[in-house]
Amino acid sequence: MLTHASGYSVYEAEDRFWTERMAEAVLRIAGVLLILFGYVQWFIPASFLQGDPVLARMALSVLFMGTGVGLYLFASRGFRKVLHVDLANRSLGIARVNARHRSLLRRDMPMADIESIFVKRAEDRHELARLDVRSKSAPWTSTVLKGAQEELDDLHRLICQDVRTALDCTPRRVRRAPVPRKRAVRPPSLEIEAIPAQ
Known about the structure:
Blueprint: E1 7-12, H1 18-40, H2 53-75, E2 80-86, E3 91-97, E4 106-110, E5 114-120, E6 129-135, E7 141-147, H3 149-167, E8 190-194
Antiparallel strand pairs: 1-2, 1-8, 2-3, 3-4, 5-6, 6-7
Helix pairs in contact: 1-2
């Protein structure tokens, strides 16, 4: 597990999102084609259009370009969840990244605003466990990551330790370290990278 003085980022494993990557690529291509068609339709002969050709072309241009931009932005919103643990600024960043590892939306939560961080076990063995964060200022709980139970348990301990260290707090209770058990080797469900120092 990589750590850094400035923090680290935890991504959901990319190989679990093959369908989402394909859907993102198809929607992005469709959006670009619609935008291009909104421009190309200005070269269509006026005999194919009814009424005022200028108004018809303007309406078609707005329709196709608006739909294309909407599809492109929808496809680029991201599907993999990522958690940024920023120790320098004492905050958690929750976002989604797309296939190009870019995120359009990110929500930052100050560590002082965190009420609890916990792992919710999967109800079925085919499902994934969830790492949830509850804020003091919001009545709902945010699911920040999904992954294997063992990996989320380790990550949960690390984040709790880092939050307490960043806020200079002492743990409310000390839990006995779990006894390690032999488990089958599985591909990792999370990817971790360090945040570069600023």
